[in-house]
Each structure stands twice: as structure tokens, then as C-alpha cells.
Design goal:
6 helices, single chain, mainly alpha, 0% strand
């Protein structure tokens, strides 16, 4: 029984210290919250931004028919399909590590999409962005919950 309590106590402390790192000092918390919010906003706004740019994309890359709709769908499909996997990966591999990896996939996909020479390359780049978003989104929420542990600070961070 004593061993069981020790394991639970360790599990409880690891929730407050993502990837074994101490919780951020109160002076760096607003900066961290800003970074997390910007990442969350990028992931959510991506679909809208591409919808607005779609006519120009279709003209520049000679997208026709279903390629136009797959430009939007490839991101949404990968993002929605891997969202739960992204949350589980954050639990197993560390929230910060998954967050940074997700940002790397997202940024790489964005760069590749911006430099895409043709429709297939664009669809693969959008899928990479979707994977990055599926990693960033749950890790962001988890980092907010574990960094802001006090009642009022946590309520404010989650509300923002």
C-alpha cells in the first residue's frame, strides 16, 4: 500500500512539472502564456487563412477540381484524426517536447506550402501542418493547465 501511495505522489508531481522541468517562475509566465496563445491562434486560423488565399493559390499552382478542396481538407483531416494521438504523445513524451516538435512540423509545413511548386507538394505540406497542429493544440492546453496551478491565475490563463 505504501508503494502505491509513492507512485501516485510521483504521478501528481509530474503533472505539475512537464517533462521533469520546474514550473516557470511568475515573471516568465506571461511570456509563456503569450507564446502558447500565439501558437494556438496559428493552428486555429490556418484554415481561414488558406480559405482566403485559395483563389490566388489555385491560380498560381494551377489547382483544379478536387485539388482545391483537398488543399483545405488535407489539413483538417490530419489535424482532426491525430488530435487525440497528439494529446497522448504529450502525456508520454513530455508536453514541452511535443509542443516544440509540433511547432517544428507546423513551421516546416508552412514553409513548404509557401514554396510549393505544385499541387501534390502543397497537399503534403498542408498535411505536415495538420500533424504539427495536432501536436501543438493538446500540448498547449496541457502546458497552460500545468503551468498555471493557482486558482485565480489558472482561471485567467484558461479564459484568455
Amino acid at each position: 500500500m505504501h508503494k502505491h501511495r509513492r507512485i501516485n505522489a510521483h504521478a501528481a508531481t509530474s503533472l505539475h512539472h512537464p517533462a521533469g522541468a520546474p514550473v516557470a517562475a511568475s515573471k516568465t509566465r506571461p511570456v509563456l502564456l503569450g507564446v502558447l496563445l500565439i501558437a494556438q491562434l496559428m493552428v486555429i486560423l490556418d484554415i481561414t487563412a488558406v480559405n482566403i488565399a485559395l483563389p490566388s493559390l489555385a491560380t498560381d499552382l494551377d489547382l483544379r477540381g478536387s485539388s482545391v478542396s483537398w488543399t483545405i481538407t488535407s489539413y483538417s483531416l490530419i489535424f482532426g484524426s491525430l488530435l487525440l494521438l497528439g494529446g497522448r504523445a504529450a502525456d508520454l513524451l513530455g508536453r514541452r517536447r511535443v509542443f516544440v516538435s509540433g511547432l517544428a512540423f507546423y513551421a516546416g509545413g508552412s514553409l513548404a506550402g509557401g514554396l510549393a511548386p505544385g499541387p501534390v507538394f502543397l497537399l503534403v505540406a498542408r498535411a505536415a501542418q495538420g500533424l504539427g497542429g495536432a501536436l501543438v493544440f493538446p500540448a498547449t492546453l496541457s502546458l497552460v493547465n500545468t503551468t498555471f496551478t493557482e486558482g485565480r491565475a489558472r482561471n485567467r490563463a484558461v479564459a484568455v
